[in-house]
Design a protein that fits this description.
mainly beta, four-stranded antiparallel beta sheet
Amino acid sequence: VQLQASGGGSVQAGGSLRVSCAASGRTFSSYAMGWFRQAPGKEREFVAAISRSGSTYYADSVKGRFTISRDNVKNTVYLQMNSLKPEDTAVHSCAAGPSIAVLTSSPYWGQGTQVTVSS
């Protein structure tokens, strides 16, 4: 599966952005999907994930502010980001895998989209 992320940009603190990750192929619904992010000088960290059945999981730092969803007809996973904070600034990347547990080791990653939040 090939992944293409889009929708990043610059916003002021408190604002909202939605990033998308479009997948190629006909087996999108068989993949768990996740979003990760990496800020300059920091390690990549988990943000949110959604299972094949639609169960969702979030990092504590984004819980209540971010929402992950998927559209199996459009082969796309979304990350709606509200109440953005400067510490959310990072390159956000999507990943696909057979289960959420193995997303970090998946060979299927999108190229990443920059999200910048100014104070």
